[in-house]
Amino acid sequence: MTPVPVPQLGTEITEAEVTEWLVADGADVAEGDPIVTITTTKMAIDIEAPAKGTLQIRIEEGEIASVGAVLAEIA
Questions:
Q1: What is the model's pLDDT at position 19?
Q2: Domain range for residue 10?
Q3: Euclidean distance between CA atoms 33 and 61, whole angstroms
Q4: Distance in angstroms (rounded) separating the CA atoms of residues 61 and 38
Q5: Bridge partners (DSSP) listed for residue 66
Q6: How many CB atoms lie within 10 A of CB 29?
Q7: Distance (Å, rounded) from C-alpha 51 to C-alpha 34?
Q8: Among candidates 22, 62, 17, 63, which has minimal Cα distance to 41?
Q9: How many domains does the chain contain in total?
Q10: In 12, 33, 44, 72, which residue has its Cα 20 to 30 A from 20's Cα atom?
């Protein structure tokens, strides 16, 4: 399993909201595919798949996640 964590986006940012999953749970993804949009108080950013495989979502749209939290895993 390859985790998809909330990245560190700045020293003052400690959490982000999962705005939109761009890929459905259980879908196959390729490394580099945009898979989720997250929003902080300062920006919105698309997170890319760090590996090829099947996406398993762990945090749903509208939820707040801390930096480092696992948004999804790729099997």
A1: 97
A2: 2-74
A3: 18
A4: 9
A5: 15
A6: 21
A7: 11
A8: 17
A9: 1
A10: 12
CA–CA dist 4, 41 (Å, integer): 21
Would you state the pLDDT for residue 9?
84
* The two three-digit tokens of residue 63, written as one number: 């939820």
pLDDT attached to residue 52: 98
Residue 23 belongs to domain with CATH number:
2.40.50.100
End-to-end CA distance of the chain: 5
Give the residue from 58, 54, 55, 66 showing the smallest Cα distance to 17: 66
Q: How would you write the pLDDT of the chain (75 residues) with one tens digit per residue?
A: 999 999 998 888 899 999 999 999 999 999 999 999 999 988 999 999 999 999 999 999 999 999 999 999 999
